[in-house]
Specification:
Structural class: alpha/beta
CATH class: Alpha Beta
Helix content: 40-55%
Distance between the termini: 34 Å
CATH superfamily: Metalloproteases ("zincins"), catalytic domain
Pfam families: YbeY
Order of helices and strands: EHEHEHEHHH
Family: Belongs to the endoribonuclease YbeY family.
CATH topology: Collagenase (Catalytic Domain)
InterPro entries: MetalPrtase_cat_dom_sf_prd, YbeY, YbeY_CS
CATH architecture: 3-Layer(aba) Sandwich
Cofactor: Zn(2+)
Radius of gyration: 15 Å
Largest sheet: 4 strands, mixed
EC number: 3.1.-.-
Number of strands: 4
Strand order of the largest sheet: 1-2-4-3
Shape: globular
Length: 163
């Protein structure tokens, strides 16, 4: 998959956010191989709470910011059946809100970079048709993929100990 990445203020320039997103994708491709189809394109927007709030209100009728929004453009079945040869296919768009990401990272006691990596993985899984709001089983399956991808990056399980 190729990522088209746009980074806007207030994301600070002391981190290579594009590289972070690419590394998150590479880790995710190891645990969710359907995302590794070379025909796929996804856009990742690192932006402000204000912009994500606007997108959330316009597209989801939720009048508040959130940490990450996902706008899938392929159905899961179509993704799974997508041949490796052919023209590019847009998987979808994700947008991360800086202020919410930074606040959540502080609350969790993790770096903004680690939390942003988690949100990129989470958003890409939504684009691939995973949904944690359907059932507990679906939530567990999605969280397991996230945890495996983050472990590849050396990032601790964001959901805590699962015994």
């Amino acid at each position: 998959m190729d990522l088209e990445i746009d980074i806007e203020a207030p994301w600070p320039g002391d981190t290579d956010w594009a590289d972070l997103a690419e590394r998150a994708l590479e880790a995710l491709e190891q645990v969710a191989p359907e995302i590794g189809n070379g025909r796929l394109i996804a856009s990742v927007l690192f932006t402000s709470d204000e912009e994500v709030h606007t997108l959330n209100r316009e597209w989801r009728a939720k009048d508040k910011p959130t940490n990450v929004l996902s706008f899938p453009m392929l159905e899961r079945e179509d993704l799974l059946e997508l041949a490796s040869e052919g023209p590019p296919e847009m998987l979808g768009d994700i947008a991360l809100a800086h202020e919410t990401c930074a606040r959540e990272a502080a609350e969790k006691g993790v770096s903004v970079q680690d939390h942003a990596s988690h949100l990129v993985v989470h958003g890409l899984l939504h684009l691939a048709g995973h949904d944690h709001e359907i059932s507990d089983a679906d939530a567990d399956a999605m969280e397991a993929l996230e945890t495996k991808a983050l472990a590849i990056l050396g990032i601790a399980d964001p959901y805590g100990d699962r015994s």
